[in-house]
Amino acid sequence: MSETTEVAATAQTGAVVSGASASLWSDAWRELCRRVTFWVAVVILFFMGLLAALPSLFTNLGPNGHCDVRQAKQRPASWNPFAAGEHPFGTDSHGCDYWAQMVHGTRAPIVVGFLVTGIALTLAIVLGSLSGYYGRLLDAFLSRVTDIFFGLPLLLGAVVILTAFPSHGMFTESFVLGLLWWPTMTRLMRGQVLSVRDADYVQAARMLGARDLRIMVRHILPNAIAPVFVYAMLNVGVVIGYEATLDYLGVGLQYPTVSWGLQLSQAQEIFTDYPYLLVYPGVFLTATVLSFLLLGDAVRDALDPRLR
Amino acid sequence: MAEEILQVQGLTKHFPLTQGVLFQRQVGQVKAVDGVSFELRKGETLGLVGESGCGKSTLAKLLMGMERPTSGTVRFEGRDVFGLSRGELRRLRRRMQMVMQDPYTSLNPRMTVGDIVGEPFAVHGDPEGGRRTRVRELLEIVGLDPEHVNRYPHQFSGGQRQRIGIARALALRPDVIICDEPVSALDVSVQAQVMNLLADLQREFGLSYVFIAHDLAVVRHISDRVAVMYLGKIVEVGDEEQIYDHPTHPYTQALLSAVPVPDPARKGAEIVLEGDVPSPANPPSGCRFRTRCWKAEDICATDEPALEPRPGATAGDDAGSPHLSACHFATEKIVRG
User: Fold this and answer.
1) Domain that holds residue A187
2) Residue in B closest to A21 by C-alpha
3) ipTM value
């Protein structure tokens, strides 16, 4: 604590001119740090990220490892997983350790969530910027294409395409979802660019003789992107929900892959008798999706106090 | 007499008014700037005054080559700005810069002051001695602390921000700076500081200014010559003395009488104009001012008065700066004793 005040003091006396002066982003960061929901979301997501990145830290079983049908559907000995012995979450209908499956099931949804958002965000930034900045014919064309994609029901579109290519992995699934996902973000981006395009400082840059690329990258993007970025962050959670839905419906990821959605799918006929098979993936899924939503909300509020 | 650096000839900008979504048809046009001519001499300040909506800012954009005119020319040192190729126009930007009206919107909030003032160099190439040194120099010239290069615009006051805008305009050592109401967004006390800074810079660097404002008092402080605009046209031009002490156009007289006088014993304005400025989409026939003019007669509705020397103007008519007025009944009237 005293260290930070010292740094600030040095900056104020001006002995060393550093980057210590507050920017909008550092203001936003300070605002974020004050929020409890932000920290709750960060802790949950950090835990989920750790599960996804380093599953071996949490279990020494591989995905679908040491499954023994004779031990299928063992209920956890206790609802407290730390006191539940060999299988803290019990075993699933194939006799796999449910905790190990939960751990290994984390990676797919999170990777898909980020990949889809990444693909959609990239498309949105490029198409939205072009459309908003150049306007006229290009804008009219891109906007009509966006309209057409808007007309496609997202879940149905994904189901149809994924059913047509049954042997797909995580990356194909992300690609398909990403291609269906960009219209909303593109519209948002386009609107943002439109609102920034005629700003005085953009005019000023133009009067200096700056070229289009410079105006876009230095002036328009940094001022237009914050809401799109926040939307993307909220979006990761939504994508994870969709991914789980597709898995549950049986058109998403397929057996040797492990994911929360697949676990729900396996449990769908027996969960009335073995509710823990529904509860654990459900809790993990909900916690993750909710955390992304909370995080996005917190970031949005911090970046734009007017929205509060 | 100093040579003319900027010549504006019959400059006109009409914006089409369209209706309909899919098949847009033109239903009229807004004559924002309608046949404006003037010239700017080296090292002088030309004040451009008019109330809001009279086309001042459109004129500024035209001068900067940011809008294409409907007709007319702007010549910079004899070369037509609108006939230049893109590359030539870019080079012209080094010679002609603009200070914008609102210091709160004209600086990119996500860039540091150093980046903002240094941007001209990023566009046109680094100066001798390096960008950083020159940026610090520029900040010093406009009276800011060079140590603040890493700060962001929102950490500065309005006056300081306008100084940043001025530093940016100065960076490439231009010859002409168009000031589009550079002080109208500032507090009165800060206005004077910024005006003085602009005057100092003019003396130091031999700049020519086109100084746009809606406030006659502000313009008087800095201008050598003044042009008064009404509804897209210049109605009177003259040197400072001619306009302020011997105005001949009724509109100029009305404007001058509206300047507040710091004397509680004096009554309000002597001339109070009735009504609003007519719409530039449908300007009155003949003289555009006739709808609000107390001198208006039939001829005003039929014949548009040209901007020319008028016999009614008696004083200060040296050959260097003719006193032009666009009124059929131009007579001198001393508005304030």
Assistant:
1) 104-307
2) B151
3) 0.84
